[in-house]
Write a structure and sequence with these properties.
This protein is of the alpha/beta class. It is globular, with a radius of gyration of 19 Å. The structure holds 1,3-dihydroxyacetonephosphate.
């Protein structure tokens, strides 16, 4: 492991007020999103969609890294150029999702454990050779009656730390994603308590498994009430409680925190990130950035609908969201941005 290279890559991923574009939907997830819009669920449609994303002119001005999926990292543009080269030429660091999905946890109804450690060392070696410089692993934690259980949190945290240590050994920056889900009617306070317990446990495990904190990125959820909780809260409240929870739990050595969007609307995700940076940026040890999938891609996907004629309009929508989130890192995002372009 070359520690300095890991540190440089981790810093580059959150430099220049940029953030990550998660385009690592597994085939089943991508197909589900296509099916809702009646887009054919084929390898070629998935390839065409990803080509649309990575060839968006100017994307590298607000996106530092793109997270690919095993199918995608092997794909090429129609003219034969490998996606990895297209990204590098655009100044975007290629990354790769390496977990193999969250599966039902035995003996724990309603809870999941993420799989993918078997053979991971060899897969990481291959991905590095293919040009990836960072990797992502997502653990999911649900809130409900009697959950999350301590054993689910511990199992996922241990697994995240084992993945992170293997990544660093292979020269890849781990993007460590423990996602406390928005699904359900839980309160803001329940999300805060679960998020803090999860993050404390994850950092205990990262430390005990000797992960270099300076050479990783944390990808957490924002602290939010459940989607069906009757007590929804303001953007200011979300910003305050999220930053407070991170302040309590994330070591200063970590260079960047890149939020997932988790099913928030694109505009709300930008507004909440903006308020956090506007209020707290100058006082925080880590960068507060983004690593959104749906909150960057969804409007573009809805415009594209699988049709060549819609590619340019979809790229404009994608670029617009990327720029909104770049502005949110600077505390300069405004609702007016949503009216003036897209
Ligand atoms: P969302 O931003 O759509 O939550 O996706 C982020 C991600 O990478 C999930 O693993």
């Amino acid at each position: 492991m070359n520690a300095q290279e890991l540190i440089d890559t981790a810093r580059a991923l959150v430099a220049g007020d940029k953030g990550l574009l998660a385009m690592d939907e597994s085939n089943p997830t991508c197909n589900k999103r296509f099916a809702r819009l009646a887009i054919p669920q084929t390898v070629d449609a998935r390839r065409a969609y990803r080509e649309l994303i990575i060839t968006t002119p100017g994307l590298g001005e607000s996106i530092s890294g793109a997270i690919l999926y095993d199918e995608t990292i092997r794909q090429q543009k129609q003219d034969g150029t490998l996606f990895v080269k297209v990204l590098n030429d655009a100044g975007i660091i290629p990354g790769i999702k390496v977990d193999t999905g969250a599966k039902d946890m035995a003996g724990h109804p309603g809870e999941k454990i993420t799989e993918g450690l078997d053979g991971l060392r060899d897969r990481l070696k291959e991905y590095f050779q293919m040009g990836a410089r960072f990797a992502k692993w997502r653990a999911v934690i649900a809130i409900g009656v009697g959950i999350p259980s301590r054993s689910c949190i511990e199992a996922n945290a241990r697994t995240l730390a084992r993945y992170a240590a293997l990544c660093q050994e292979a020269g890849l920056v781990p993007v460590v994603e423990p996602e406390v889900l928005m699904d359900g009617d839980h309160t803001l306070e329940q999300c805060r308590a679960a998020t803090e317990e999860v993050l404390r446990t994850v950092f205990n495990q990262l430390n005990s498994q000797r992960v270099l904190l300076e050479g990783m990125i944390l990808k957490p959820n924002m602290v939010l009430p459940g989607l069906t909780c009757p007590a929804q809260v303001s953007v200011d409240e979300v910003a305050n409680i999220t930053v407070k929870s991170l302040w309590q739990t994330v070591p200063a050595a970590v260079p960047g925190i890149a939020f997932l969007s988790g099913g928030q609307s694109a505009e709300l995700a930008s507004a909440r990130l903006n308020t956090m940076n506007l209020r707290f940026k100058s006082k925080l040890p880590w960068a507060l950035a983004f690593s959104f999938a749906r909150a960057i891609q969804q409007p573009a996907l809805e415009i594209w609908q699988g049709k060549d004629a819609n590619v340019l309009a979809a790229q404009r929508a994608l670029l617009h969201r990327a720029r909104c989130n770049w502005a949110a890192r600077r505390g300069e995002y405004t609702a007016a941005m949503e009216r003036t372009s897209a």
